[in-house]
Amino acid sequence: MTSGSPALASIDLAVVDVSAKTIWLFLHVRTQDGAEGFGEATLFGAEEAIAAEVAKARALLLQRPLPLPGGALQALAMAQASSARRAVTHALEQALVDLFARRAGLSVARYLGGPYRDRLAAYANINRGISDRTPAGFAERARWVVENHGYDGVKIAPFDGLNWQGDLAQRRRALAAGIDRILAVRDAIGRERRLMVDCHWRLSRLDAIEVLRLTESANLFWLEDALDDGAFSAEDFRSVRSTANGIGVRIAGGERAETVADIHDIAAAGGMDVVLPDLRVTGIRNGMVMLQCAVAAGMEASIHNPTGPVLDAISVQVAAALPSFAILEGQVGETALFDEIAGGRPTLIDGHRPVPDGPGTGLAPKLSFDAALPKAGSGIATFAGVAGAGADA
Questions:
Q1: Could you read off the pLDDT of 26-85 as tens digits, one per residue?
Q2: In which pathway does it act (predicted)?
Q3: CB 292 within 8 A of CB 322
């Protein structure tokens, strides 16, 4: 073990039972010299698997003379790792990057070689906070968020119950309902604010083109994850992108991308304008390389950030450390627990989020670690058909 790299003394898990749709999972790590850092391993529907992987991480890593963070991450690496193992590994990377930045007295953005900017364009993912799924309910929530939180953009997932493989009559009803929600939100937030629409891979090529045609007056900023890349061809993706770009709309996606090879495939397909990988899926350093490759291939960089306050704080710092970055997502209005844990609501200035420049992420989360998981069955096993939920909503 190199000097200045003490062994890990503890790895603790915090469980926050937010709602039937959401359970947040956070890691707290501490080294033998008392330094600490925080990461987020939220993985919807896999809470027990995450807890088991944290126990394995303790057995593999604690008190061992491993060079940190690389040695610890390598000890957890395995061929064909489960999604839970990857989530814990990436949460550990977040926590160790946070820890070493704090020890150095640097922000995470500076520790990672930035920052390239001191504030970030930002938008609010409001979908999980919309309990009234009527167009009026969507509109009311969107208006409340922009007026009370100061965001210049919102993202909604309006196509509840839609499945491109489903019954035609049901599909038409769900599609029409989604379009009504989009138009209502545009009227509610005004013309000057950005409006993003997340489809959660629910549309066919023809559905996506129809949505773009029928919402042209809504002036969407982007249409996200319209098509499932496992079911549709590169030609389908290019067709949707061409239609979108023809009316000034971007196509966004890539939250399931894991590697630089995935970015290469996305670029080769030519169907995307904005790539937004998720740091829980990619890890920090790999995710940064992926986004730099995406920018080099002519796409814009963003980050998928729909979960809790720890990942949010990490994502802000990573976004600031990237040479090119478009706009950052934030989960807004699902629960007051977000602000309670973070110690306050994220600050916005002219629709932008300032990048904290204190040590680490700048977050001292108010959490109880090693809390028990919710009782079996208290959450949901699948988001299929659940209003306000998608893969990550």
A1: 999 999 999 999 999 999 889 999 999 999 999 999 988 889 899 999 999 887 889 999
A2: Carbohydrate acid metabolism; D-glucarate degradation; 2,5-dioxopentanoate from D-glucarate: step 1/2
A3: yes
Same-domain pairing of 22 and 69: yes
SS3 78: coil
The alpha carbon of 284 is separated from its chain's Cα centroid by a whole number of angstroms, namely: 13
The last residue of a domain, from among 73, 106, 139: 106
Q: What is the pLDDT of residues 345-361, one digit of tens each?
A: 888 999 999 999 999 99
Is the domain of 42 the same as that of 115?
Answer: no
> Is there a single domain that holds both residue 155 and residue 246?
yes
Q: Which of 126, 130, 142 is nearest to 185 (CA)?
A: 142
Q: Which domain holds residue 246?
A: 111-354
- Is residue 1 domain-resident? no
Q: Is residue 318 part of a domain?
A: yes
CA distance 277 to 280: 9
pLDDT single digits (tens) 271-321:
999 999 999 999 999 999 999 999 999 999 999 999 999 999 999 999 999
How many structural domains comprise the chain?
2
Single out the residue in 82, 106, 130 at which a domain terminates: 106
Helices (H), the chain: 47-61, 70-76, 83-104, 108-111, 135-149, 168-189, 205-214, 234-246, 260-269, 279-282, 284-296, 309-321, 337-342
**What is the pLDDT, as a whole number, of residue 2?**
45
Same domain, 76 and 180: no
Higher-confidence residue: 333 or 381?
Answer: 333
Quote the CA–CA distance of 196 and 224 in Å, as a whole number.
Answer: 7
What the block records as the tokens of 391 is 């893969």
54: domain CATH number is: 3.30.390.10
- Residue pair 355/117 in contact by the 8 Å Cβ criterion: yes
The rounded distance, in Å, linking the Cα atoms of 232 and 210 is: 17
Are residues 137 and 95 part of one domain? no
Residues above pLDDT 70, as percent of the chain: 93
Query: Any idea which of 20-24, 49-53, 94-98, 270-274 has the lowest mean pLDDT?
Result: 20-24
Whose tokens are 């009311």? That residue is 140
Q: Answer whether 342's CB lies under 8 Å from 313's CB.
A: yes
